[in-house]
Amino acid sequence: MKTRNSIRVALIAVAVSAALTGTVTAANADTNAGDDAYTFNAGEEGQFQLYGSPEPGMMQPKNFTSSLSGWLPGSKESRHWADNDYTEIQFTGCSMTNTTGVSAGVKLWQAIPFARDKDMGMKTFTNCFKGSTATSRGEWSAHYDGGDNRYFTVPALNGSIYTQAYLNVKKVYVDTTQAD
After folding, report:
1. Which of 118, 50, 140, 129 is nearest to 93 (CA)?
2. Helix (H) or strand (E) holding 16
3. b/e map of 79-99 (b: 16 or more CB within 10 Å)?
4. What's the whole-model pTM score?
5. Cα torsion 154, 156, 162, 168: sign
6. Mean pLDDT for the chain overall
7. How far is CA 140 from CA 11, 42, 122, 171, in A?
8. Which has the higher per-residue pLDDT, 150 or 62?
9. Rounded to an integer, what distance in angstroms lies between the CA atom of residue 122 and that of residue 87?
10. Can you name the residues that pair with 125 across neighbouring β-strands?
């Protein structure tokens, strides 16, 4: 029984290792040794592929435009994008529901796979509350090893993490190229 458990543990370790490297193999005890392995087939029922880098269609282009609606402090995170050197975030036309908007804290994060994400600092946006075409802008120039995906959160509104105010932003622009 002990040998059977050791073999089972070894087979599980091999399967996990193969899945993490991007190739899944399957063994069947009823076939010849040369016929028991095959490459992952995405169309095969009951199997799925693990992606080591962004899943196709899930990573956004480096520069993008979006909007925010109904964000409570710390309640959401932005989409992720590939970047690891320079990030500029712009908010245009900020407003709040349930209070008069004065400021929004925007915190940039670097996603680190299988570890705690890196806090890259927070900027306070105030100008975007001065009208529908007014823009606030924050820049981050830093590099962290271990990950190349970034995202932002809004942890504070009007200087507080404890509020029932909701942030709305007409236009959010994320730029990852310092040249422009």
Report:
1. 129
2. helix 2-20
3. ebbebbeebbbbbbbbebeee
4. 0.65
5. negative
6. 77
7. 46, 39, 9, 19
8. 150
9. 13
10. 104
Q: Can you tell me which residue has the tokens 């400021």? A: 103
At 82, list the tokens: 């590939």
| Strand intervals (E) in the chain | 64-71, 81-82, 86-97, 104-111, 118-125, 135-141, 149-157, 166-175
Q: Per mean pLDDT, which of 13-17, 50-54, 126-130 is the most reliable? A: 126-130
Per-residue pLDDT for 26 more than 50?
no
| Tens digit of each residue's pLDDT (9 = 90 or more) over 95-139 | 999 999 999 999 999 998 888 999 999 999 999 999 999 999 999
| Closest by Cα among 123, 92, 91 to 107 | 123
Phi-psi region of 107 (alpha: psi -120 to 50; beta: other; left: phi over 0): beta
Rounded distance between C-alpha atoms, residue 45 and residue 163, angstroms:
47
Distance, CA of 173 to CA of 180 (rounded, Å): 13
